[in-house]
Design a protein that fits this description.
single chain, 7-stranded mixed β-sheet, Rossmann fold, alpha/beta
């Protein structure tokens, strides 16, 4: 054995591939690719972007100061290439509490993706009925399904309750079918997962979310976030009436500086990069051998049915000819 191994090579570093360190570009310090308010749809902004605060906060908060030059460069280049076709990200959270920490974390995730230039929409689970086989046409059900079909990727944030994800969150996934006719609302989408806990750090919920994502035929990115003792991780709410205090508090209810916050940025940056790379191959990732085989069998069955119908039609016409007394005034029976 070699005596030159790093720390005994406990992490098997000898087999690692060489990687290039990307140097941050100071030209992107403070830069945002967010949709300008003047160009945004007012109705969508009011309904699906509750994470947005005042311009003063957005331009000076911790997210505006975060170093995201690599992802911003990729986003900028992609929008130039696609004519401004932004990534479409749906964000789901799993609590209906007034001060829901999963919602607060979902908002922080949304703000990061928003700065990177994504079209971010947060679904409000309030009013969504408990899953049954009757209420498929309920407005909240239809809204959720349409948002999933619209999206390129998802962010799922759930609290951990009794060691696993909440009913509020699971109910949303249960209402999203694997397929609606020929459309699969989640297949091929990317997925980032995160959880908040009231106690010590746990990974039960993110593990369950990862299983759910795989079942829904989504690409769950490798990274994930688990925020422990969530009640200690966010600043207090702040009344916007006191403008100076509101701006100073970055709007209030914000994620405090910590390694947990850094991990959230890592996860959202990773989701953005994966989605950007994979979106252009969306149709390719949705192409499966078993489904091609199923489509071909269906096509052959339809051809067989058509042939039988045509044969039945020809035989029916022949029978009509035989039994008819006259055709076009001619006595075909020779009577």
């Amino acid at each position: 054995m070699s005596n030159n191994r790093v720390h005994g090579d406990l992490n098997n570093t000898e087999v690692m591939r060489e990687t290039n360190s990307l140097v941050p570009d100071p030209a992107y310090d403070g830069k945002t690719l967010a949709i300008p308010e003047a160009e945004d749809d007012a109705e969508i902004r009011a309904k699906y972007r509750p994470f947005l605060t005042s311009h003063e906060v957005t331009n000076s908060d911790w997210i505006a100061k975060s170093e995201l030059s690599t992802a911003l460069k990729l986003s900028e280049a992609d929008m130039e290439k696609t004519g401004g076709d932004r990534l479409k990200i749906l964000v789901l959270y799993g609590s209906l509490r007034d001060r829901s920490y999963s919602r607060l974390l979902a908002f922080e995730c949304s703000r990061i993706l928003w700065r990177l230039g994504a079209d971010v929409r947060v679904y409000d689970p309030s009013g969504l009925p408990v899953k049954d086989d009757v209420q498929h046409q309920h407005p909240k059900v239809q809204e959720l399904r349409e948002l999933s079909k619209w999206s390129d990727g998802h962010v799922w944030v759930s609290p951990e309750q009794h060691g696993n994800l909440t009913a509020v969150f699971k109910n949303q996934i249960d209402w999203v079918p694997l397929s609606t006719g020929s459309v699969r609302p989640t297949q091929g989408r990317t997925l980032a997962i995160a959880q908040v806990s009231g106690g010590s750090q746990s990974f039960n919920t993110v593990n369950s979310l990862r299983i759910l994502g795989r079942w829904m035929r989504m690409f769950a990115i490798p990274n994930q976030s688990s925020v422990p003792m969530a009640y200690t991780q966010f600043t207090d709410a702040q009344n916007s009436a006191d403008r100076d205090a509101f701006v100073q508090a970055e709007g209030g209810s914000r994620l405090k500086p910590s390694g947990n916050r850094d991990r959230v940025v890592d996860v959202m940056e990773e989701l953005f990069k994966y989605t950007l790379v994979m979106r252009q191959h969306f149709d390719l990732f949705g192409d499966r051998h078993s489904e091609r085989k199923e489509r071909e069998m269906k096509r052959l069955r339809e051809i067989e049915v058509t042939k039988k119908e045509e044969k039945a039609g020809i035989e029916g016409n022949a029978t009509s000819m035989i039994t008819a007394i006259t055709v076009n005034g001619i006595d075909v029976k020779g009577a």
